[in-house]
Amino acid sequence: MNKQNTSPYYQGDMIFIFLAFFAISVISIYAAGQFEQYGTSAWSRQIIYYLIGAICIVAINYFDLEQLEKLSIYIFLGGILLLIILKLSPAQIAGKDFAPIKNGAKSWFVLPGVGTLQPSEFMKIGLIMMLASVIGKATPRGKRTLEDDIFLLLKIVGVSAVPVGLIFMQDAGTAAVCMFIVVVMVFLSGVNWKLISLIGSVMVLLIAAVLAVIILFPDFAQKMGIQQYQINRITAWLPDKSSSADQAAQTQDTSGSDKYQVEQAIMAIGAGQIFGNGIKNLKVYVPEAQTDMIFSIIGEAFGFVGCAFVVIMFFFLIYRLVVLIDRIHPYSRFASFFCVGYTALIVIHTFQNIGMNIGVMPVTGIPLLFISFGGSSVLAVLIGFGIAYNASVQLTKYQSYLFK
Description:
By secondary structure, the chain is mainly α.
């Protein structure tokens, strides 16, 4: 029985997802260009980022899954090395920005003629690959003892601690994303549920305690090393009990604040109504429109229909990955657990970014993957997409051999 009449390298649904996100991203960034926050040519730079990402996807498919697993340690260590270099680098070299400090933290390199490079974006993929290798090599679920589970947890913590700690010193929001990925991968690794419950309870209490300190004792939070802009992002999310006159004055004084940013994003989405105002007729100015608040641009330009299409596309991608997780597991535990981590990455970014655009989540500076403008974000997520695509190709091959 011949299951496949076409090349296994042709994964039509995933190619469609790639092309759809590419089109949405370029058109949305082009629409936001009228505000000239990143220049009017940002959309053409995004095309270049996508083309480089497409080359990376093709290159990744020249490796098999075993080779990618062997490379995971080198990619992981390379990511840590970049984070350490970033931490130790001077803000300027020869009077020009190299590792500039913004909001009290250094998050990216400035490379002349290239643009910016944000190591934490690539570290997410490296961390997922390394954790997938560690979990995949562990004794399968059902055959492990409690001691095996504890040892596996210790290895996961050991792998995660350094990169998450280094990222936390740069960006608490990105560090939180990494922690979410780790928690999801631990949960699906088959570790004893009692251990997971204990760890989960401790983490919830710890997060609640940190939030309570930030909200009730902001001065003490600063002494603990939490930056003022991070405190502002949490407090801006809380209901404002001040009078309407005070709120108006505050809005005028802090036009670049997170609260103002969210208010403008909500206004822009509402202005789009059902079908939107078109890509050349945007009326609501939104700070960071091409990056953090790109969803608000989609809302005003294409209305509810455009927003719904974007959400559906993310659901389609997540569904495709979940199916792949289950089907590739008997053939490659590494690929299966990588897809677990990659799915967690997509879920948390999508939920958080859209949530902060509609005012139900605090502003964290987390981009909408595949769509927001940014070379590091686009390249990192497409590298991860390339590995998932490779897994899908390998699954097609395995199934073809099975039915021959």
